[in-house]
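Intended use. Records such as the Glycosyltransferase 2-like domain-containing protein entry shown here are meant for training and evaluating sequence-to-structure methods. They are not intended to support clinical decisions.
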Amino acid sequence: MMAQDELRASVLISTYNWPWALEKVFWGFFAQTRQDFELIIADDGSRPETAELVARMAARSPVPITHVWQPDEGFGKCRILNKALALARGERMVVTDGDCIVRADWIDTHIREARRGHFLAGSYFKQSRDTSEAIDEHSVTSQAVFTPRWLMAHGGKLSRMIKVMGRGRSGWLLDRLSTARPTWNGHSASCLRSEALQANGFNELMGYGGLDVEFGLRLNNMGLTVRRVRFSTVALHLHHERGYATPEMRADSAAVKERSRSERLIRSPLGVNQWLGSDGEPRLGPQDRVTRYGY
């Protein structure tokens, strides 16, 4: 059992009805070089198979796990992330998705590279269907899956291998040489939990498309600047289709994001405060379910 003041980070992992991928994500977190963090599975209404997987993986987890579930009412990622944020006990909030397998130094980098007045923004490395299906537990725990040799042997292209070559000093250098515009990235990003609360968490007016960028915009408006960890926090993104995104959903989200930009909003108009009591303790909905393991 770990005391709350020993938790340096709370990792929020969003998921929806894909336990096959989530199991691989767990393998990556069980192999981390440090264990002073908690995992919070932010479940946007998955069927019981996901809860069964979480319980099974929690029995062998080296870190505490919280599973928060809300009823399936359509795309509700921001809402479930806010509920996960309300439940978080760590000093830093780190976010990723339930289809991203992270390298063993991922958490350590998010903690070690943190600087006052900054949030960290990483990236992800998309994998093909064939490569995704070839990933097994041994390749993750041995860290072979994060090497160019393994990836190219399973369909990866040499031209893209720079994405897994950053480690330590080389990762730091690649991050600073990168010309990609850094933004808050839902696959790999972090800030202080207190900063996320100051911004009132994620904007529940957002549907699919741009919700990560919108949150980062409000952190910028708060006065935080982005610190790039694009190459030093490696996350392999498993292949999947995106049938749930509609043009109307994207257009609505773009309008919300533009308002946050033009009005320089800091606080979400519909955010985490509705899931917190006046004492700062979580106050979730009557149909939400929370299960904690290992605390």
